[in-house]
Design goal:
The structure holds 2 protein chains of 2 kinds. By secondary structure, chain A is an alpha+beta fold. Chain A has 2 domains: about 100 residues, Sandwich (Immunoglobulin-like), CATH 2.60.40; about 150 residues, C8orf32 fold (Roll), CATH 3.10.620. Chain A has 4 helices and 12 strands. In chain A, about 55% of the residues are buried. Helix content of chain B is about 30%, strand content about 20%. In chain B, the strands form 6 sheets. In chain B, strands 4-24-23-20-19 form a 5-stranded mixed β-sheet. A 5-stranded mixed β-sheet of chain B has the order 14-6-5-21-22. The longest helix of chain B is centred in the N-terminal third of the chain and has 25 residues. The interface between A and B is large, with 64 and 48 residues.
């Protein structure tokens, strides 16, 4: 499937800030399921830093924006050919050992309820267990925007019984770890075929490490594994660690952020 | 919506003066945010049995004498000191001691003792009686320390690369990859010259003429080298005759060697003479004196996070003549505070964007982020295995024998010998959750027996060691007091060790605690030329 992305993030500050520094994980992952045809990231008033590929295989790019500025625009445009690999991250070069992703972070802490949810899941083999865990999370947390926020933990989302893709991913990571399966957070884009609603286009899911297969994506929010509708950007322990844009403004102004994302299918 | 949540940036307010950054001499950890500079850990020392601690006579090695007892033959390195002490009149001694204190106070080496009450700018007591190593004793120590520093660095390069030592089953994956100090963000990156830990502080105790044990390795930012330098300076000023009579190896070239070491790991992108800086958390940090001393001696800038910034592919320093590119940062702040974009988002001590520049080879950071995984307490047990695995050599310096209670055989041994052992929590610090068998009552031992049986994997056990002593000036004259040693091994293009180090002494009789609140002091450490 050929997907085009137009993703605009606007940071605005109530008083001018002296400088802004950002770190981007905004390039499509390099693996068998994705082929990038063209891709461009622009930052208003920004100077690009050196780019590197980190141990998790993500392309990381630093940016500095000299002030005073009251607005920074980050625009991502590009085209990617995708292929359905049933969620398997085939051909992805990385150094980080899967066992690293058995580490707990604040949003992915496994409380008693998450452990119960994880332990109730059954599977004849690791892959079936991973599917069962993903289904259990989807059953336990209904998709409902607006009830959770950026800092909601997996335990809190499960207690609420509602949340968005970030909460689903955190909960699945917590459950997988409870069953000694390394798991990580993935951020990317999703082409929502049915109605093309833009708020779904910026997406997140989880990857579980399955012996023999390697990393396999699971998207409890959509009860599926990533397929040709997904574009993978980068990964981390949790949402904060995998954030496509991390930024800091010097100068103490209040920051507001506005995001629009459009993912379209284009003719091959 | 989801991506938006993940992308929320955080406004970075202007720096606010942090407070409470005083280091606790007691447990060797910074009490405030920013820097965990390690000093020899007192918790280790109190685990080592000394005179009378168990109410039994333990043969202790006095480094000045050939055998046990006090009036036996003097060992050669101390030969000349015998006359020096014997002929020193009491008045002269008092005078010199007062002079030493005045010098220390004038140069401003004071140590803020957090949480211990009293004068925060109290001097660390300086004992004028030097600790002496012969050239051949030192040669062996030097080989052992360098060997360890090489193995630790090889381990770091390995665990951030292919992890061969884990694949080979020589160290459990969990200890490394789930370790708090393991930095995923630097996996796959090899720092210049393959060095992660550029200054390795190896804490060593001695129990006999040939018996040395490593208590712990400090691969991040070992502190205390200023005491080594100032103690020597003061001794030379007060007792110039001693330095004429004894052929003592110099230590004052440490700063030059440190500067060369740091310059030798400049990134490949750096052409010409590298610009080196020392990054300090600020003047409220208790080791600030040391940071400024080293900057002075090396002739490099002492900077705080706000003095540096990232622009494009490099890190720059604000100067009166405009921005100047920085090639090597000798940081004395913890990983967590280096870069709020990569580590703690709330940190105001670091430089936003630093890690991206580092990872792309625009700047070197010493010690390299992630080096801490090599000096973890649980990883310590495996350092002898690292020496064998990476260097194909037998370790020259021994670890304190350690039983891993998670292993059934070890547990059985520990349970059978609890009254003679020290039992510690794997992740405990500062002496909490620790059993000192020889000092414990029956109730406490029974309590630990229950704990060990319930959660054995959480504990390690070690024997009690009879720590060596060195003659020390005390109220009544001269008496033996327990000591430890921290040499500072430099690793860059070359690996170097200045002949000397920081000797700490427990000034209270029978005490093994080198805690300043309990009378811990420092001595000049001599290595004699062969």
């Amino acid at each position: 499937m050929r997907l085009t992305v137009d993703h605009l993030t606007r940071y605005s500050y109530d008083t001018p800030v002296r400088s802004v520094v950002q770190s981007h994980r905004l390039a499509p992952s390099v693996f068998t399921g994705q082929k990038t045809l063209d891709w461009e990231v622009t930052v208003s008033g920004g100077t690009a830093g050196a780019r590197h590929r980190d141990g998790a295989g993500d392309t990381v790019q630093g940016w500095t924006i000299a002030g005073p500025v009251t607005e920074v625009l980050v625009r991502v445009r590009g085209t990617v050919d995708t292929e359905d690999l049933s969620g398997v991250l085939r051909g992805h070069r990385e150094t980080v050992a899967p066992d690293c992703y058995l580490r707990e972070t604040a949003p992915t802490r496994t409380d008693a309820a998450l452990a119960d949810l994880a332990n109730a899941a059954t599977g004849a083999d690791p892959l079936s267990l991973a599917h069962a865990l993903s289904a259990a999370v989807a059953d336990a947390i209904a998709y409902r925007p607006g009830v959770t926020h950026a800092h909601t933990t997996a335990a809190e989302a499960l207690a609420l019984g509602e949340g968005v893709c970030q909460d689903h991913a955190h909960a699945l990571i917590a459950c997988a770890r409870a069953r000694a399966i390394p798991a990580r957070y993935v951020s990317g884009y999703l082409f929502a075929t049915e109605d093309g609603t833009p708020h779904e286009a910026a997406h997140a899911w989880a990857e579980l490490h399955v012996p023999g297969l390697g990393w396999v994506g699971f998207d409890p929010a959509n009860r599926s594994c990533p397929d040709a509708r997904y574009i993978r950007l980068g990964s981390g322990f949790d949402a904060q660690d995998a954030a496509p844009i991390r930024g800091i403004a010097r100068g103490g102004a209040r920051e507001a952020m506005d995001v629009t994302v459009a993912v379209q299918q284009s003719a091959q | 919506m989801c991506l938006a949540a993940a992308m929320r940036g955080s406004g970075w307010a202007d720096r606010c003066p942090a407070t409470g950054l005083h280091k606790s001499w007691a447990n060797g950890h910074a009490a405030g945010a920013g820097a965990t500079e390690t000093l020899p850990a007192a918790s280790w020392l109190c685990s080592i049995r000394g005179q009378g601690s168990a109410g039994e006579a333990v043969a202790q090695f006095n480094e000045m004498f050939q055998g046990p007892g006090v009036e036996t033959e003097v060992r050669i390195p101390y030969a000349r000191l015998k006359d020096w002490v014997a002929t020193m009149p009491q008045e002269l001694r008092s005078l010199k001691q007062a002079e030493a204190e005045a010098l220390f106070r004038r140069i401003g080496i004071t140590f803020a003792v957090y949480g211990e009450g009293g004068d925060p700018d109290r001097l660390i007591p300086f004992d004028m009686f030097p600790r002496v190593f012969s050239g051949s004793e030192w040669a062996r120590l030097e080989r052992g320390i360098k060997q360890r520093a090489r193995a630790l660095n090889a381990f770091l390069v390995d665990v951030y690369g292919r992890g061969e030592i884990i694949r080979a089953g020589r160290i459990p994956a969990r200890l490394v990859y789930q370790n708090e100090a393991y930095e995923k963000s630097v996996a796959g990156f090899v720092p210049p010259k393959g060095v992660y830990s550029h200054i390795v502080g190896v804490d060593i105790v001695r129990t006999g003429p040939e018996e040395f044990y490593v208590l712990e390795d400090n691969c991040r930012t070992p502190s205390g080298v200023s005491y080594m330098l100032e103690s020597r300076e003061i001794m030379m000023r007060m007792f110039p005759d001693l330095f004429r009579e004894n052929r003592i190896e110099p230590v004052d070239n440490y700063s030059e060697k440190l500067r060369r070491t740091l310059a030798s790991v400049a990134p490949a992108k750096c052409k010409g003479e590298p610009t080196v800086v020392i990054l300090t958390p600020g003047h409220f940090n208790s080791a600030y004196y040391e940071h400024s001393l080293l900057a002075d001696l090396m002739g490099v800038e002492l900077v705080e996070g706000q003095d540096l910034f990232v622009d494009g592919e490099y890190v720059w320093m604000r100067t009166t003549e405009g921005p100047r590119r920085v090639d090597v940062i000798y940081r004395r702040i913890d990983d967590a505070f280096l870069d709020p974009l990569c580590f703690r988002p709330d940190s105001m001590l670091g430089i936003p964007g630093l890690m991206d520049v580092y990872r792309s080879g625009g700047v070197s950071i010493c010690s390299a982020p992630g080096a801490g995984v090599a000096d973890d307490k649980a990883v310590y047990t495996y350092v002898p295995d690292m020496v064998r695995f990476y260097l194909g050599e037998e370790p020259i310096l021994q670890n304190v024998p350690t039983w891993q209670c998670g292993k059934p055989d070890d547990l059985a041994h520990v349970l059978a010998n609890l009254p003679d052992l020290v039992v510690k929590e794997v992740h405990g610090s500062g002496g909490y959750g620790m059993l000192v068998g020889p000092k414990a009552g029956r109730d406490e031992i029974d309590r630990f027996r229950a704990k060990l049986t319930e959660d054995p994997g959480n504990y390690i056990a070690q024997p009690t060691l009879a720590l060596s002593t060195v003659p020390t000036f005390v109220e009544e004259g001269v008496a033996p007091r327990h000591v430890d040693l921290r040499p500072y091994c430099l690793v860059g293009e070359r690996i170097e060790l200045v002949p000397g180090g920081l000797t700490r002494v427990a000034l209270t009789e029978g005490s093994l605690v080198v805690n300043s609140s309990q009378g811990g002091g420092v001595k000049d450490t001599w290595v004699l030329a062969e």
